[in-house]
Amino acid sequence: MAFHNRLKELRQQQNLTLRKLGEKAGISYSILNSIENGRIVPSKDVALALAVALKIDDRESFVALAINPSQL
Predict the structure, then answer these.
(1) How many CA atoms lie within 13 A of 59 on its CB side?
(2) Cα–Cα distance, 24 to 42 (Å, whole number)
(3) pLDDT tens for residues 13-55?
(4) What angle, rounded to 10 degrees, do the helices at 29-36 and 18-25 form?
(5) Domain 3-71 belongs to what architecture?
(6) 24 near 53, Cβ under 8 Å?
(7) Where in the numbering of this chain does the HTH cro/C1-type domain appear (predicted)?
(8) Which of 11, 41, 61, 64 is deepest in the core (most CB within 10 A)?
(9) What is this structure's pTM?
(10) Sequence-distant (≥ 6) Cβ neighbours of residue 25 within 8 angstroms
(11) What ranges do the domains of the chain cover?
């Protein structure tokens, strides 16, 4: 699964809006919207901030999906 699809799935499972997730992760709405729509690829730091905000247990795999999608 592509990172942006996984991000959207996790965000929706937690009933978070893009704005609310952005606030929790310290990422602007416009950047988060671009990531979720697959227009940009997040940096490792941004992916980690999203993993923390979404309370993902396996943060390493989530970050790896963002920065090395062909590796998984």
Answers:
(1) 12
(2) 16
(3) 999 999 999 999 999 999 999 999 999 999 999 999 999 999 9
(4) 110
(5) Orthogonal Bundle (1.10)
(6) yes
(7) 7-62
(8) 11
(9) 0.91
(10) 32, 46, 49, 50, 52, 53
(11) 3-71
